[in-house]
TrEMBL record, chain A:
<keyword id="KW-0411">Iron-sulfur</keyword>
<keyword id="KW-0786">Thiamine pyrophosphate</keyword>
<dbReference type="Pfam" id="PF02775">
    <property type="entry name" value="TPP_enzyme_C"/>
</dbReference>
<dbReference type="GO" id="GO:0046872">
    <property type="term" value="F:metal ion binding"/>
</dbReference>
<dbReference type="GO" id="GO:0045333">
    <property type="term" value="P:cellular respiration"/>
</dbReference>
<keyword id="KW-0460">Magnesium</keyword>
<dbReference type="GO" id="GO:0016625">
    <property type="term" value="F:oxidoreductase activity, acting on the aldehyde or oxo group of donors, iron-sulfur protein as acceptor"/>
</dbReference>
<dbReference type="InterPro" id="IPR011766">
    <property type="entry name" value="TPP_enzyme_TPP-bd"/>
</dbReference>
<feature type="domain" description="Pyruvate ferredoxin oxidoreductase beta subunit C-terminal">
    <location>
        <begin position="199"/>
        <end position="264"/>
    </location>
</feature>
Automatic annotation (TrEMBL), chain B:
<feature type="domain" description="Pyruvate:ferredoxin oxidoreductase core">
    <location>
        <begin position="475"/>
        <end position="566"/>
    </location>
</feature>
<dbReference type="InterPro" id="IPR002880">
    <property type="entry name" value="Pyrv_Fd/Flavodoxin_OxRdtase_N"/>
</dbReference>
<dbReference type="Pfam" id="PF01558">
    <property type="entry name" value="POR"/>
</dbReference>
<dbReference type="InterPro" id="IPR009014">
    <property type="entry name" value="Transketo_C/PFOR_II"/>
</dbReference>
<keyword id="KW-0560">Oxidoreductase</keyword>
<dbReference type="InterPro" id="IPR002869">
    <property type="entry name" value="Pyrv_flavodox_OxRed_cen"/>
</dbReference>
<feature type="domain" description="Pyruvate/ketoisovalerate oxidoreductase catalytic">
    <location>
        <begin position="14"/>
        <end position="175"/>
    </location>
</feature>
<dbReference type="InterPro" id="IPR050722">
    <property type="entry name" value="Pyruvate:ferred/Flavod_OxRd"/>
</dbReference>
<dbReference type="Pfam" id="PF01855">
    <property type="entry name" value="POR_N"/>
</dbReference>
Length: 288, 575
């Protein structure tokens, strides 16, 4: 059986020392090994950003796509081959700005893949511009007088979009994050994991310490019930989205493929796909 | 007796004009006639003039007719807009309901029949189209039995009552017409007997869809748009029987990226759209080229730019399809020569995409995509699937931790293991990369990888990159694509001069060495196309030096070329 070391490759990440993304990489490697996956059974699709480089740092089938488009590629892979474990990943700009349309629709579509956002509330790769999750007033190169727009609330948006699995954590809590990713991979449907991953180079406000002080673990909330939409919404509102843990899960919901009776639910990859003589004749007859 | 008649039905959109044309033409196709239809419609659902023009012939036809013999009118506008197209002595059959009139200056016959009133008496005004068809049948001396069969196919599941009333409506129309045609020479409206060859009657979008299924497509992702939607609709209807499915995505970027993902995983997937959607897909098409992931995108061209003429004929995406992506990628752009060929060329598109691991754009145009027409049946024994260097089974162990997916090779193509296989792990990225797929922006590697990718295009690509019609040797060479091919063939057959016609199927890369003997031998080369700039002409000129001998015939008013227009244009150029 594979260990997390089998998910390592020969590439040395080019992330800045101290970048939150390192720990997310480690948590994914650990979660995959702990779930009994082999590296070749995993397809990891990323967008563009510092975070997007992840697909090249984990030994698995890796697909580094275009900015904001990891989700469509990942869903396409899963629709071709349901036997693969598919993870999509990228930054907050990738998933909540240029790719926001795909994010909302992937949430509502509920294809059985896992989406891990590495949220640093800034654009890292392009050297420090405001992001959709940057707090109001946040000063960056493109918001010298402070951000004038309200930040997007990814978890609330996910609730509103029909999500069936929503989790959030900190990259510094590798253990907790690993457990969450394991559950996300086990979830039958689309699992969304937002991870606060500090950018030590361009975001001096939302630091490791800042996140620790501002996030609330749902385990510490007495009456929290992650299957109860009303409670989830109440606490998301109360804590401004800063919850930690598996915030919401609907274990009953059917995944996209489970809705389609005729859908070949294991594998749509055939070396020599065939159309029988009879099917050919029947379909051609409909053109008469 | 005639070898050819054009019948046209018109009225307000949403009034059943479509189904009237459908019932009439399908029946005639089943009788054995060759048909070519053209729909005039606009992008609204209810209201606005629409008409369905059906050319019926005892011989193959692949062009819109020059004029009309019979016009069936459900409103005055139909007469006002279309009567001038009637031949001398042509007949208008119009509904009494709107008190039809026709310009006295026109030498045509107006026959008024109470379509709506009669249908109401029989049970429902919905059947006014059957009354009109019955009347047309009498005029053309077609036995109603042929239409009864059609009525049965259409309405059997709605119950015997409905079948019976529709038959009554047909009979009523037939009888009412019988009272009015005494003074006409009915020989002018009667067709000679058809041949007994087996025939299909379908739109180009159906041929493309059926081709895709035969090519092995089991998953499709698409976003609706005219005139491409029928492709996704066909796939939605028929993929379930093969265990496949279709996702209607949030936009075209998602659609093309899902197709890329699915193809990367070893499936055969594609998407279809029109100009606006293709504009959105450009970055992704570049990703397919750079990552060497097979991709097929169907572009059913319509009138541009922007929303342009969304329901009208044009071929103005050619330049964008050939050159649209940023950076240099190898790309193949194909154009089926007719509806029958669309089936085979679609399958070839999937094979080429996979053999050369690159994006293939399969072009169509609105008239080919939506104009229902007769085609020879498709031959399953000609269906060939070639998966190129895609690897489907576990690979042998190797020393490096990543498989060298982008190894430099002579033909530019390297082995492509699909995810899930042992020892096939590699990386895929739109960033310039090493042979194992990990990013590398170094100068030397860049050159090696770029040369490798671009080298693919120097292979022999399509088996038959163009077809030669008309006279094999002549002074005049015509070059056309897609639905224009049929019009050119017909126009040339009417000319006394010898003309060679090339139906270009592989637009890019242009098969210039194979074309050269034809080009060099021509005193005049005429490119005929539906756009303002002469886009195909420009691409020819970029590849071929004899510019002073190259002329264009251009049309961009949204309507398809007619044979007599083309005859006049050619004469204008060569005389
Ligand atoms: C279509 C397109 N537009 C813009 C860019 C430039 N770009 C690359 S990454 C990026 C934003 C990165 O921010 P984020 O997604 O938050 O990732 P991070 O670097 O913070 O991990 C931008 C704007 C691009 N690559 N493609
Ligand atoms: S710029 Fe920020 S996000 Fe990018 S690698 Fe450095 S620390 Fe990480
Ligand atoms: Mg970011």
């Amino acid at each position: 059986m594979a260990t997390f070391k089998d998910f390592r490759n020969h590439i040395k990440p080019n992330w800045c020392p101290g970048c939150g993304d390192f720990s997310i990489q480690a948590a994914i490697q650990k979660a995959c090994a702990a779930n009994g996956l082999e590296p070749e059974e995993l397809a990891l699709v990323t967008g563009i950003g510092c975070s997007g480089r992840l697909s090249g740092y984990i030994k698995s089938y890796g697909f580094h796509s275009t900015h904001g488009r990891s989700l469509p590629v990942a869903q396409g892979i899963k629709m071709a081959n349901q036997e693969l474990t598919v993870i999509a990943s990228g930054g907050d700009g990738d998933g909540f700005a240029i790719g926001m349309g795909h994010t909302i629709h992937a949430l509502k579509r509920n294809i059985d893949i896992t989406y891990i956002v590495m949220d640093n509330q800034i654009y890292g790769l392009t050297k420090g511009q405001t992001s959709p999750t940057s707090d109001a007033g946040f000063v960056t190169k493109t918001t010298p007088d402070g951000a004038k727009e309200n930040p997007i609330a990814p978890l609330k948006a996910a609730m509103a979009s029909g999500a069936t699995f929503i989790a959030q954590s900190l990259s510094s809590d590798i253990k907790g994050l690993t457990a969450i990713i394991q559950e996300a991979l086990n979830h039958k449907g689309f699992s969304f994991v937002n991870v606060f991953s500090p950018c030590v180079t361009y975001n001096k406000i939302n630091t490791y310490d800042w996140y620790k002080e501002n996030i609330v673990d749902i385990a510490d909330l007495e009456d929290y019930d992650n299957a109860d939409r009303a409670i989830v919404s109440k606490y998301l509102e109360e804590h401004n989205g800063m919850l930690k843990g598996i915030v919401y899960q609907d274990k009953e919901a059917k995944s996209y493929a489970e809705h389609i009776e005729s859908y070949n639910d294991t594998n749509n990859v055939h070396e020599t796909p065939e159309v029988s003589e009879n099917d050919f004749k029947e379909l051609m007859a409909s053109f008469k | 007796m005639k070898d050819q008649i054009t019948w046209k039905v018109g009225g307000q959109q949403g009034e059943g004009i479509e189904s009237t044309g459908e019932v009439f033409s399908t029946t005639l196709n089943r009788m054995g006639y060759y048909l070519y239809s053209y729909r005039h419609f606009s992008s609204r659902i209810k209201g606005g003039h629409t008409n369905n023009n059906i050319r019926i012939s005892t011989r193959e036809v692949r062009a819109v007719a020059d004029n009309t013999n019979i016009l069936v009118a459900f409103d005055q506008q139909t007469i006002d807009v279309n009567a001038h197209e009637l031949v001398t002595g042509g007949v208008i059959i119009a509904d009494e309901k709107f008190s039809p009139t026709v310009d006295d200056a026109l030498d045509v016959e107006l026959i008024v029949i109470p379509f709506t009133e009669t249908a109401k008496e029989i049970g429902s005004q919905l059947m006014k189209n059957m009354v009109a068809i019955g009347a047309s049948a009498k005029l053309m001396d077609i036995n109603l039995e042929h239409f009864y069969e059609m009525v049965h196919t259409l309405f059997a599941r709605k119950g015997e009552d409905i079948v019976e009333s529709n038959r009554k409506a047909l009979n009523a129309g037939y009888d009412l017409m019988a009272e009015k045609v005494g003074h006409l020479n009915l020989d002018d409206f009667k067709l000679n007997a058809p041949d007994d060859k087996e025939k299909l009657f379908l739109i180009g979008n159906d041929a493309i869809s059926f081709g895709a299924i035969n090519a092995g497509v089991r998953f499709m992702a698409a976003y609706p748009i005219t005139p491409a939607s029928e492709i996704m609709e066909y796939m939605i209807k028929h993929l379930p029987r093969f265990g496949g499915t279709v996702i209607q995505t949030e936009d075209e970027i998602s659609a093309v990226m899902m197709a890329i993902g699915s193809n990367y995983a070893g499936g055969r997937s594609f998407t279809s759209s029109a100009g606006p959607g293709l504009s959105l897909m450009m970055e992704s098409i570049g990703l397919s080229g750079m990552t060497e992931t097979p991709l097929v995108v169907v572009d059913t061209m319509r009138g541009g730019p922007s929303t342009g003429l969304p329901t009208k004929q044009e071929q103005s995406d050619i330049m964008q399809m050939v050159y649209g992506t940023h950076g240099d990628i190898p790309k193949i752009v194909l154009a089926p020569s007719d509806v029958e060929d669309a089936f085979y060329t679609t399958i070839e598109a999937f094979n080429l995409a996979e053999i050369y691991q690159l994006p293939v754009i399969l072009l169509s145009d609105l008239q080919m995509s939506l104009g229902k027409q007769t085609s020879d049946p498709f031959d399953q024994s000609k269906v060939e699937i070639n998966r190129g260097k895609t690897v489907f089974t576990d690979m042998e162990a190797h020393e490096t931790d990543y498989f060298h997916r982008y190894e430099d090779t002579e033909d530019g193509v390297s082995r492509r293991p699909i995810p899930g296989l042992k020892n096939g792990i590699h990386h895929v990225t739109g960033v310039e990369h090493n042979p194992d797929g990990t990013p590398n922006e170094g100068a030397e590697n860049r050159k090696t990888q770029m040369d490798k990718r671009m080298r693919k295009l120097s292979n022999q690509l399509m088996k038959e990159p163009f077809k030669v019609h008309g006279d094999e040797e002549s002074d005049v060479l015509m070059l056309s694509i897609l639905s224009v091919n049929g019009v050119v063939d017909e126009a040339v057959s009417r000319l006394d001069e010898k003309v060679t016609v090339i139906h270009l199927k592989q637009i890019y890369p242009m098969p210039i060495e194979k074309l050269r003997p034809y080009l060099d031998g021509a005193k005049k080369i005429i490119v005929i196309e539906h756009n303002y700039n002469g886009q195909l002409t420009s691409i020819l000129k970029m590849n071929y030096a004899g510019h002073e001998r190259i002329a264009s015939i251009l049309k961009y008013d949204g309507t398809p070329f007619k044979p007599n227009e083309v005859v006049a244009e050619i004469k204008g150029i060569i005389n």
